[in-house]
Amino acid sequence: MESTLILQHNILYSRGYQKAQRSEHYFPDHALGIMLAGESSYYSNEGTFVMNEGTICLMRRNQLFKKLKKPSPTGEPPTLISVFLDQNALHQYATDNTILKQKAYKGQAMIDLTNNVFLKGFFDSLRPYVAHPEKLTAKLATLKTREAIEILLQTGDGLASFLFDFQELYKIDLETYMHHHYQYNIPLASFAKLTGRSLSTFKRDFNRIFDTTPEKWLQSKRLEQAHYLISTQTLRPSDVYLEVGFENLSHFSTAFKSKFGVKASDLWTNSDPGVSSGS
């Protein structure tokens, strides 16, 4: 069973299932994490980033990822400690240390910092709190967060612009963005933020561009992609529904039958020569 232990508001310990599990993530804040066991693969428009046991990664805020978590070869569930560097903490650090306004960050969204021995030592110092979370007070968590920022700034990899680029998302081309990201199952409020809009402006702009509501367009677009994957790529419905952005197979199956007049399972059977021939 998956469990998440909130050591403090921005420091989390999570232990997943002893089986592969797919999910989607939107990170509104920077995240610094270490993989303690198992494996997590992150898929984005930038490519694939794999975290194995011992991998330390810094993830850029305002990113969308599809994630596949798997146990280790010995069956240990995927386990991770994450420290989220929220904007308030970073603003305070910048003010206290007279850090000037940084240029817009243009680098990678996920940075591998596995070889940083100081970050490894930092995460080692957090491990005892998993068994004794009451010992990690809010004051200590603030100190640990500032320690993480200090270590990151000492890496010499130009992370100042990564951490202290406080520019808000600007209004981007909504049509292009939605065609590239419709398969991510996130709230409309998150889509709005990622495209530089308030929720009301997002809905208004969406209706003007697509002549329908976001909810109706997203479902239709996801079903069309599912139909293509099942009929042309002969993928099973159970392998498709999460990939295109549905939360559960039952809802997907009902919506598919309603839109196309045929069950997704029947379409797959008729599309796969091996299945239809009984082999």
Automatic annotation (TrEMBL):
What protein am I looking at?
Answer: Helix-turn-helix transcriptional regulator
Q: Does the keyword Transit peptide apply?
A: no
UniProt GO molecular function: DNA-binding transcription factor activity; sequence-specific DNA binding
Q: Name one Pfam family in it.
A: HTH_18
Please report the organism this UniProt entry assigns to the protein.
Spirosoma validum
Identify the InterPro entries for this entry.
Answer: AraC_XylS_family_regulators (IPR050204), ExsA-like_N (IPR054015), Homeodomain-like_sf (IPR009057), HTH_AraC (IPR018060)
Give UniProt keywords alphabetically: DNA-binding, Transcription, Transcription regulation
- HTH araC/xylS-type domain: from which residue to which, for each copy? 172-270
Q: Does the keyword Transcription regulation apply?
A: yes
Q: Which residues form a coiled coil?
A: none
